[in-house]
From TrEMBL:
Xref: Gene3D superfamilies: Glycogen Phosphorylase B (3.40.50.2000)
Domain UDP-N-acetylglucosamine 2-epimerase: 23-358
Database matches in InterPro entries: UDP_GlcNAc_Epimerase_2_dom, WecB-like
Keywords: Isomerase
EC number: 5.1.3.14
Name of the featured protein: UDP-N-acetylglucosamine 2-epimerase (Non-hydrolyzing)
Top-tier EC class: isomerase
Lineage per the UniProt record: Bacteria, Pseudomonadati, Myxococcota, Myxococcia, Myxococcales
Length: 375
């Protein structure tokens, strides 16, 4: 049987690979190997997601850990070359835009192994973002470009990539969200935190450009403190952000800010329970912009740009930048009842994993089912 090898490395990868892995396993026409690079390694940044998403433990764990971009990417490459040599995959499937994604694509390309990039074509057009470099380069060397939305197709075509390699399969991360939503809503997350549905805001911040720059980070925290004076703001803190808070000596002040609730990173289900019942969200994450659009929750993206413009064009997202005054004013407008009402983009319907499995069968010349993507 032909073999697909999946790469996961960091937190946002797990909810994208789970539905693809499940669809391939249900169809039974391909074998698959799941490789975790170990880019993220804390239990709360990794292990809990496998349990929450019902994904099997990785077949191979590389234990790479943290480091500079060059160190982390290079270490993943060195170890993956050995894995690809012994596993001999027919297709390497990578998702998203983290360092592990690009590292895997580079190794596969040099070894002549076909590559599929899931979430291809997203562009922030901001090359100061490490993720943008990872996206552009991974797409350039991938054989199958599986996109979440039509704007991504247009970006790839503009860059001169062959239309024959591009397939609009929809947003696979939304498969995970729709599959888990009911279970998440049964969790006691809100009552444990003393929150009422729609009575609080949720915040995530971890982008280097926001948390590693003291001036930007302090401005964001002051805007959050303002919002926290109107309703509780729950802020699950990413390890990078936690480190910056402590380096800047801000922990005591933040702990004392009324309404601001700093908590540890949450598992997938717990966080979904929190976001799906929030009044609004503040984030610099990519995934949360999309999740809030599907959940119908107003989202303020505290960045100067987004690689996911569809969440702004038809969803609930507003790219608000990092100016504290503008963030406060926009949040106030939403809290005063003027939040955006969005709709859900095409093919964000819970069936993307199935479409991807069918694309892989067709690419590898196995199976004989009509493609959902063409319907
Ligand atoms: C990475 C991705 C980013 C993604 C984010 C989601 C890249 C370039 N960045 O950023 O696109 O949005 O994951 O979380 O790949 N750390 C821990 N425990 C962990 C993981 C990280 O303590 O399990 C700390 C370490 O101090 C590490 C820092 O967080 O140095 C940053 O981790 P890293 O993987 O380099 O990047 P992220 O900021 O997590």
């Amino acid at each position: 049987m032909k073999k697909v090898l999946h790469i996961v490395g960091a937190r946002p990868n797990f909810m994208k690979v789970a539905p693809i892995h499940r669809a391939i396993s249900e169809r039974g026409s391909l074998t698959q190997t799941l490789v975790h690079t170990g880019q993220h390694y804390d239990v709360k940044m990794s292990d809990v997601f496998f349990t929450d998403l019902g994904m099997p433990a990785p077949d191979i764990h590389l234990g790479i850990g943290s480091g500079s971009h060059a160190e982390q990417t290079a270490k993943v490459m060195i170890e993956l070359e050995k894995v690809f040599t012994s596993e001999k995959p027919d297709l390497v499937s990578v998702v998203g835009d983290v360092n592990s994604t690009l590292a895997a694509a580079l190794v596969a390309a040099k070894m002549g192994i076909p590559i599929s990039h899931v979430e291809a074509g997203l562009r922030s057009f901001d090359r100061t973002m490490p993720e943008e470099i990872n996206r552009v380069l991974t797409d350039r060397i991938s054989d199958l470009l599986l996109t979440p939305s039509a704007d991504a197709d247009a970006n790839l075509i503009r860059e001169g990539l062959e239309p024959a390699r591009i397939r609009l399969v929809g947003n696979v991360m939304i498969d995970s969200l729709l599959a888990a939503r009911e279970k998440a809503l049964r969790l006691p997350t809100l009552s444990e935190l003393g929150l009422e549905p729609r009575g609080y805001a949720v915040c995530t911040l971890h982008r280097a450009s926001n948390v590693d720059d003291a001036k930007v980070f302090s401005g964001l925290l002051s805007a959050l403190s303002h919002v926290a004076s109107r309703l509780p703001v729950v802020f699950p803190v990413h390890p990078r952000t936690r480190k910056r808070i402590s380096e800047l000596g801000l922990a005591a002040t933040l702990e004392r800010t009324p309404g601001l609730r700093l908590v540890d990173p949450m598992g997938y289900l717990e966080f979904l329970a929190l976001t799906s019942q929030a009044r609004l969200a503040f984030t610099d994450s990519g995934g949360l912009q999309e999740e809030t659009t599907v959940l119908g929750i107003p989202c303020l993206t505290v960045r100067e740009n987004t690689e996911r413009p569809i969440t702004v064009d038809i969803g609930t997202n507003v790219v608000v930048g990092t100016d504290p005054v503008r963030i406060q004013q926009t949040a106030d407008r939403i809290l005063d009842g003027h939040g955006k009402k969005g709709r859900i983009p095409d093919r964000w319907d819970g069936r993307s994993g199935e479409r991807i499995a069918q694309e892989y069968e067709q690419f590898l010349g196995v199976g004989n089912t009509p493609r959902l993507a063409a319907v």
